[in-house]
């Protein structure tokens, strides 16, 4: 199934969490001068027009990047994220919004590499139009779950993998867990970031995903942000990121950032807690056993 198009959801609260985490990860990895590689299993189209018919149909960016952009001076640690947006919008604002590939491309240096995978034909076409002229970028029209393990370990042997499928089919949860286990076995020193949605009670599979990941990986960091309480319907009230092998000092910086993001994005008063209706953010290590 290839019905999902991220253009309907670009710049929403889940994108803000994902891209804020990605910006902090790249910040930490770029401290060292050694070159690195960024791999994205489900790259999408790279750049999104928030004034397009798709984006305006949902207007999700208004409660995502729209809120954060108005408060950007209060988030100096996200300077790379905001700079990537500003680079696409020389006349100001955030109408053109960077997906993860474009954010990474903006942050990385001349001797770093990007390896991007996308299966949707139309998205690949747009991705190539946006990024293919950059000699650092390699774009693969292939299934990211299959392609990721086939391309590991990468050269240079240092870097970050982003796994962020749309979870439009039930098997995505199993594939994410299996893909991470296989990738980690081939490249145990790499850093990994896995995005997942928090949905309504009847459709939420976040607990199942975390259980499966904990059986595959000895330990990982979990960061979640919910903008409203969980309901019974399908709607996405929040999202989370799993981080494997976070770089030095990343945990400290994300732990400070997360409650402040909740202050900006949550539609109800943010609280810290474990999974549940009242929790607006969560930050903890999960360890096997």
TrEMBL record:
Active site residues of this protein: 164 (proton acceptor)
Binding site for S-adenosyl-L-methionine: 19, 42, 100, 118, 143-144, 164
Entry keyword set: Methyltransferase, RNA-binding, rRNA processing, S-adenosyl-L-methionine, Transferase
Enzyme class, first EC level, given as a word: transferase
Catalysed reaction, written as an equation: adenosine(2030) in 23S rRNA + S-adenosyl-L-methionine = N(6)-methyladenosine(2030) in 23S rRNA + S-adenosyl-L-homocysteine + H(+)
InterPro entries the record matches: RlmJ, SAM-dependent_MTases_sf
One of the GO biological process terms: rRNA base methylation
EC number: 2.1.1.266
Protein origin, superkingdom: Bacteria
Transmembrane segments: none
GO cellular component: cytosol
Site positions for Interaction with substrate rRNA: 4
GO MF annotations in UniProt: 23S rRNA (adenine(2030)-N(6))-methyltransferase activity; RNA binding
Pfam families: RsmJ
Signal sequence coordinates: none
Subunit field text: Monomer.
Family membership noted in the UniProt record: Belongs to the RlmJ family.
Function text: Specifically methylates the adenine in position 2030 of 23S rRNA.
PANTHER family cross-referenced by the UniProt entry: RIBOSOMAL RNA LARGE SUBUNIT METHYLTRANSFERASE J
Protein's name according to its UniProt entry: Ribosomal RNA large subunit methyltransferase J
